[in-house]
Amino acid sequence: MVTTIAVASDTSIVGDFKSATLFVGDDYRVDVSSEAGDRWDKNLTGFRAEEEIGFNADASVLVGAFQRITGLIP
């Protein structure tokens, strides 16, 4: 079970997640900088991480492998 703010609190999505496709683009990368802005003066280091990920369940939704359940009582 996963909780998210992307779905209303009285709604649940159930399905066969193995039937969906997960796409992973470039590998993850982490950038480090101690020079951007005033970080050097404040002796700070900043980190930024990125990864390309996509999720497609269109075919699974069309055949009914995913269903949305509404009207749940939290």
Strand order of the largest sheet: 1-6
Q: How much helical structure, as a percent, in the residues?
A: 10-25%
Name the average pLDDT: 86
State which percent range the strand residues make up.
35-45%
Radius of gyration equals 20 Å
Per-chain topology:
Blueprint: E1 12-15, E2 21-24, E3 29-33, H1 39-42, E4 46-50, E5 53-56, H2 58-62, E6 66-69
Antiparallel strand pairs: 1-6, 2-5, 3-4
General description of the model:
The chain is mainly β. It folds into two domains: 1-20 and 57-74, no CATH class; 25-54, no CATH class. The chain is built from two helices and six strands; from the N terminus they run βββαββαβ. It has helices spanning 39-42, 58-62; strands at residues 12-15, 21-24, 29-33, 46-50, 53-56, 66-69. It has a two-stranded antiparallel ribbon with strand order 1-6. The longest helix is centred in the last third of the chain and has 5 residues, at 58-62.
Which characteristics define this entry?
6 strands; two-stranded antiparallel sheet; mainly beta; two-stranded antiparallel ribbon; 74 residues
What is this entry, summarized?
This protein has 2 helices and 6 strands; from the N terminus they run βββαββαβ.
